[in-house]
Records
---
Amino acid sequence: MIFISAQPYDYELPDATKVALIVIDMQRDFLEPGGFGEALGNDVTRLQSIVPTVRKLLDAFRDRHLPIIHTIECHKPDLSDCPPAKLNRGKGKLKIGDVGPLGRILVLGEPGNAIISELSPLPGETVITKPGKGAFYHTDLEYLLRDKGITHLLFAGVTTEVCVQTTMREANDRGFESLLIEDATESYFPEFKQATIEMIRAQGGIVGWTTTAENVLQGLG
Ligand code: C5J
């Protein structure tokens, strides 16, 4: 048994074969000027502070040959997988599918839709493309995890209260034991990040656990 010091109490991993690191949406569209995040009116530089920590976690999983799953929020070029409710939301100048400085906003294959170069997936790592905020919606993620016998998920990425939290809630309802790595996730709104951390671990861990990257590395040994 592997114990990771966490809140509201220690996170227990039966063994390292049951765990995957899920890195949510570390894309240029969210972290760099000219992408979707900025089109929504956000200061995207806030998200860049977690890049070294996410990289450290990736390196630790790579060194131990443990599974890594990256996700990308994106839409098909014809936007047929983007419902009007998502397409038309917001009052920004640029909408999903419009051409911005990094190519078409939130469209698969465009320069801005790629994962930032520092965290690029390596061959053999899974990349889940997802049209929604949650990584289980309209994807093969659940089947892939069940097929590999993975029961425990460690979460990093952006943004804490949108795609990370949505995916953790989806995972929790499907019976996966979910741990959020606090210093490997970030939000455009610090108060939303803090609230998310607190609501995840409230009520005895109603959605899951939270911890630090250092605790994860110590626990994995
Ligand atoms: C958002 C995400 N915030 N990855 N996406 O629209 O959190």
Note: Residues 25, 30, 73, 133, 158-159, 162-163 surround dicarbonimidic diamide (CB under 6 Å).
---
Amino acid sequence: MKTDLPQSFRRLEYRPPVYTFDQVELDIALDPARTIVKSRIDVLPGKGFVAGAPLVLVGQDLEFVSLRINGDAHRHFELTPETLSIHSLPNEGKDPFILEIISICVPEKNTTLMGLYVSNGNFFTQCEAEGFRKITYFLDRPDVMARYRVTLQAREAQCPVLLSNGNLLKTEKLPNGWHSATWEDPFPKPSYLFALVAGKLECIEETITTSSGAKKLLQIWVEPHDLKKTRHAMDSLIASIHWDEKRFGLELDLERFMIVAVSDFNMGAMENKGLNVFNTKFVLAQPETATDADFANIESVVAHEYFHNWTGNRVTCQDWFQLSLKEGLTVFRDQEFSADQMGSESGRAVKRIEDVRLLRQMQFPEDAGPMAHPIRPDEYQEINNFYTVTVYEKGSEVVRMYQTLLGREGFRKGMDLYFKRHDGQAVTCDDFLAAMADANHRDLTQFKNWYSQAGTPRVKVQEHYDATKKQYQLTLSQSCAPSPGQPDKKPFHIPLKIRLITSGNEQVEKLLELTEPEQSWTFDNISERPVLSINRDFSAPIQLEFDQSEADLLTLFSGDDDPFSRWEAGQKLAMQMILGNRLPDAKLIEAYRTLLMDPQLDPAFKELALTLPAETYLYEQCKSVDPQQIFTARRAFRKEIAKQLQLEWAALYQQNQTPGPFKPDAVSAGKRALKNLALSMLLEADPKTWAPMAVNQYQTADNMTDRYAALSALVIHGAKEANECLADFFNRFANDALVIDKWFALQSSRPPVEGLELTLSDVKHLREHPAFKLNNPNRARSVIHAFCANNPASFHQPDGSGYAFWVESVLALDAINPQVAARLARALDRWRLFAEPYQSKMKAALEQVAACQTLSPDVREVIGKALG
Ligand code: PHE
Ligand code: ZN
């Protein structure tokens, strides 16, 4: 009988490998229908060696052909669908030996996009986390680090380009139109960093000189028709290389560094050693086809993958529970890089606000839901489900807190010690913390709770001002709600930047360290009741419980010198009013007006300050969510801002034009953002009057930011001109897959509009559209995820029709690509937070998916935890 209890992996069950690999030689004859992989491996006893133990390799969807040890056929082995166990090793495994294996895989049938697969006729691999086992039998775990020499063979006409990690050693012509290329990577690496790419690709290249004076070859490989869209990625790569030298003293260690773009990819991009593989979405850009957001995302993803070369590759993870060791740290590094690229202090602040907004919109719900996990999880069923906003974005906030506590210099000392101790090793989050602590002679024991406990801490603020004593007392208490498997929480070490704002000149600015459940601070010589500015720059990833008066919030919103806190005060005011079903009052409208008209303020900041909190963030503030009510209240609030400030919006629209050729820099992008918010607000106020101006912008735009913003304003506000522009957009960009993704996503994420049919009926038509492809992740996400995850008011219908669509889509996707299906499966995570009738209908939908007998482990884990 088959038990269907899913298998769990536990962090504390880590055991060092019994055997390890030194040198790995791969010989791969590429054929879409039958790729032959020969491996030749030097095997040695590992850290966990036990004499006589079998060598247990893993393999998936492989056809086994043969096995040799030290050159001789070896018969003592056992095959299961997922393992190859080899017994009777020479001298009980105590002596090194040479293992040779031949196996076969079928790239053209591989729709999971893990392992070796075909996309648009070219070959690609994706090995993180556990894809290498779909290429050959191996010790597919990150603490086995080996040096690789790889020979690729293919038909030259079909695959003129053959790439792998490291340096190119030689190329050869072979009989029958075949050819080969041999690559050698001088740095030991885990199998998840292996990559090969083969096919009809072309590149742009550049030679640069790094800090030590070494020359390096940089290449960006794409399909020939995309060559003209690679400049921005190349510029971003060069900027990243220079930044890492300057900020962290880290230099590129290979003679050659390559980026390859692929249109079928599960994630954003992958940091394979010297051969980064990217979703086309994060490489290709030119002004006519990519928005400012696309340009910024490309810059940050290129930087992220490049930065992994040190934080991830040179120092890697001992096991997958340590994922945040490389991801949290590398996200922190890419955020700091992007902030520096903004070119000004106010630009840095804008980047910080954007990052916090994303964290709160995406990660806070995760941290309060059934999949909540510490940044270092203790248990998983499918590691692919743990590439989460918690591991990445909260992980980055945790790294940022070291810098806040230790200062920039202290943080740099910690990084230097981390590399000094661990270069070439596979290590843990504890090792990182120890390096930070030791380099700064600090005891960071309590800081470990950020790694072990899930949930967003809540910090309650109580203040008291004594006018006679001129004394201000601040009391902070912390708590953290239970999360799965963690009923009780220990106090966190929370750095809180504060400032006491008064009209006098005794400005008190301090970094408080909250470590106890409750702590008080007294400030003397405070001449008047101060307004408290707290968690400035979002110094800790917490929720504040603070009944600050609307008057104080208005004071902060009108003039806090910390841009984050200023923005935050505005968000809080708007949030309280929306949740209280109120419209903005006269004072808030005046504050908005003053801010919008302030010539000193950055347009990008104005745009953020006038963008309302997302619906999903508002949900988290409720005990019982009525999604239609929240949508209606938020939209009414927006309409009021639009109407009351209509003259200002019109003026801002004119003032923030960016004449001349398109430039993607932060200042120009900020102006476009504000101008396009103004356009959207004008249509919100009065679509009939302003739609022609949007149509005009749509037609005359010389860049995608402006064209898409105009189209989007027409669609979102239900303008009658929308359909004609949508049709024009499709025809104009029919040959550009990434732009067609935008066309699908815009329609799928249209919120409800009075007088129009529900978006779901459009979505069902889009799914039947000839250009829709379920097996291309970008396209599938542009319709299905855009609707189920990014369009809450359309998705959450009281009749449950959105959930029925979700059930069908999860099941259809799961049969093709479990990773993409499992992401979609998470759209119902927060079902317990919803009011009736939503809650029961969401539960029923989850149960319907759970009842499917053939679910992948990926989807099974997500659904099981949601219902558990
Ligand atoms: N390691 C990649 C990154 O963060 C993400 C990734 C994970 C890509 C798994 C593919 C598969 O940069
Ligand atoms: Zn990463």
Note: Residues 126, 128-129, 267, 269-271, 304-305, 327, 387 surround phenylalanine (ligand 1) (CB under 6 Å).
